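Dear Dr. H.,

I hope your travels went smoothly. While you were away I took the liberty of generating a structure for the chain from your last submission, since the lab meeting agenda had it listed for discussion. I wanted you to have the full record in hand beforehand rather than looking at slides cold. The sequence, exactly as received, is reproduced here:
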Amino acid sequence: MLRKFTKKRWLAALGVVAALVVAGAAVAYFTSGGTGTGSATVGSPAASDIAITGGAPSDVLYPGGAAVNVPIKVTNGGHAAIAVAKVHLASVTAPTGCAASAFGMDDVSVDQTLQPGQSVDVTGHLTMADGGDQNACQNAPLTLNFTSN
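The corresponding predicted structure, in token form, is as follows:
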């Protein structure tokens, strides 16, 4: 009888060990860790998201005369907020014989973060230097080309 008793105990112990191994494997499966990688891309505003339009000057320009106010509208046409620090007169397009270099404007401070669809109005001060014979500039249409930041 001692032999049967030992065999039963041995089978019971083996059953308990087997159950613990299975439970341990299940716990290890559900609690195991791991590592991995992923990727994402962060968008950035395009230069075309900002529209800068100049309005009609407050007066006419004269060589060496007073600066004239030029209303400027800055609009965020993008899908994200964009910080605009300043508007810069990048160039002036003038008719043949009229020196575009005679015209100038200091940078115009904006210092705002524009939400999508938001606009802000600022004013620039356009000047015309006195550079000798500028008859070709009389009544000439000018195109002011702006950039921002």
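Two observations you may find useful: The longest strand covers residues 82-93. DSSP finds one helix and seven strands in the chain.

With kind regards,
E. W.
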